[in-house]
Amino acid sequence: MENILDLLQKYDVPTPRYTSYPTVPYWDESTINTAIWKLSVVDTFKNENGEICIYVHLPFCENLCTFCACNKRITVNHQVEEPYIKAVLKEWDMYCSFLPSKPIIKEIHLGGGTPTFFSPQHLTQLINHLTKNAVVVDDHEFSVEVHPNFTTEEHLKALAAVGFNRISLGVQDFDPAVQFVINRIQSFEKTKEVVEWARSNGFSSVNIDLVYGLPKQTVQSVQHTIAHIQTLMPNRIAFYSYAHVPWKSKVQRRYTEIDLPKAKEKWEMYNTGRMLLEQSGFSAIGMDHFALPNDKMFAAAREGKLHRNFMGYTTTQSKLLIGLGVSSISDSWNGFIQNEKEVEVYEERINKDEFPLMTGHLLNDEDVLLRQNILDLMCRNETLLQENLVEKDFVKSVFEKLSALKADDFVEIIGNKIIVTEKGKTFIRNVSAAFDARLWRKQIGGNVFSKAI
Questions:
Q1: Nearest one of 315, 313, 296, 295 to 305, comparing CA atoms
Q2: What pLDDT digit, counting tens, does each position of 33-88 carry?
Q3: Could you tell me if 153 and 115 are in contact, meaning their C-beta atoms sit under 8 angstroms apart?
Q4: What SS3 class is residue 308?
Q5: Domain boundary among 296, 324, 352
């Protein structure tokens, strides 16, 4: 059996994260337009009996975190809040105007940017408008991502009052050297304070975001950070691999590749973190989440009901995700669209009563089939390849790749059933890539994806 250095050299290569299939670089925007998108939304809306999830992108931040590759706008001018909220609500009204019945909301997620950049009053206005002509299910999940430095108890009280029950706090790492180089100075005491506010105001689930592989980060700093997080005992932890994509996010050029841990060090960081979390009672879920037995994500994984979309892993299995706001991505299961990425362009198009569609993709039959294969691998660690429904040369390439993965003890193959081994779960992006027909047919040149490990 190959040692870990050989495996890392072979598999730590640029690979999609598979929050969608096809992945965004392989979308064919000629297949979709506003009219086609509306038809796809209505069709899925009917098939889902009106159940939807909503993602709202709130892009503004007062502080630039240099590790972040999200779409954001750095400003201390809070005059931007009101026109942006108005545009988002107008976009939602545009959707409601062609839906055949009242939407049934299962999930709302506020992402950013820093959602708590917005005042408690504006956040209340946003949620009340989204829900006023809709039905909210009893077991809904309303979640918000927060930066503790820019979050007040008034924010959390306002969100709790309109139904929010989940909160995710960005931490990344508590080591001062790491915080300095990624420009995110954040104390444990402030983080603890926000967690305590959330719990005292009725948030039933607390998530902490950690990142491994950051510049200047060490195994010791990961240990230090997790030791602090263990005292808070959140319900779940997202332990993400740092995505170094300086061609996409120019701010990542504050440091260089020299400052990043090597693949072996990054591997040790993940395994150290995983061991510490499992010793604290957390179970590994998917490729980058950990949950306590009392968390919905733990139950969803155990029952085979885990789902994955552009928000990452989720316990809500709706096939219709409406993304509102600049750069948001919507998913109708048979189609994807992404909104304009510039705030001014997004607001201008909304104010002209135009859907702010920038790009998208309408899935063909093969796309839908392979999307389910990759989703099954990512969420349930197994899948069944229906080889009679895809072209023979591609099937041949799948099994060639799977044979190599089997030789490294990443998968078991039983006929057309593929089962990911415990060892293979860490390499799940590589396993999923074996089923990526668009990647197989056309390797896009240049920098596109972050590395797999």
A1: 315
A2: 999 999 999 999 999 999 999 999 999 999 988 888 788 999 999 999 999 999 99
A3: no
A4: strand
A5: 324
